[in-house]
Amino acid sequence: MKPALSLVVEEPIAGHYYWMIVLTGGWLRLSPTLIDSASGPLPSYQAAQEAGRQVLGAIKATDDRPIPSGFGGAWDIMTMPGALV
Predict the structure, then answer these.
(1) 13 in helix, strand or coil?
(2) Rounded-to-integer distance, Cα 85 and Cα 78, Å
(3) CA torsion sign, 24 to 35 to 13 to 53?
(4) pLDDT digit string (tens) for 29-81?
């Protein structure tokens, strides 16, 4: 499953474009988390967008296990087989 990633392009200074890939949303995430970003400015919006798309396409899907609900769900408690005597 691929995480909910978004590509953002910003121009903090005129003519200097930066791309960022952020992890968005989810009920546990109240604010976006930065995953990757441009190491330097790019000359145009299109160049930044294309560079960000290449990196976004290279990010592989992860095996996210669902978090169990109920008591102890966040502690990753496992049940062990046993025998009743």
Answers:
(1) strand
(2) 22
(3) negative
(4) 677 888 899 999 999 999 999 999 999 888 876 555 555 555 555 555 555 56
pTM of the entire structure? Answer: 0.63
- 29, exposed or middle or buried, with CB in 10 Å at 0-12, 13-18, 19+? exposed
Task: Check if the beta carbon of residue 76 is closer than 8 Å to that of residue 67.
Answer: no
Cβ neighbours around 8 below 10 Å, total:
16
Among 36, 33, 62, 34, CA closest to 51: 36
Q: Which amino acid is at 80?
A: M
The answer to whether 29 and 44 are in contact (CB under 8 A) is: no
| φ/ψ (deg, to 5) at 23 | -90, 120
* Chain centroid, CA 25 distance in Å: 9
Say which residue the tokens 């049940």 belong to. Answer: 79
By residue count, the chain amounts to 85
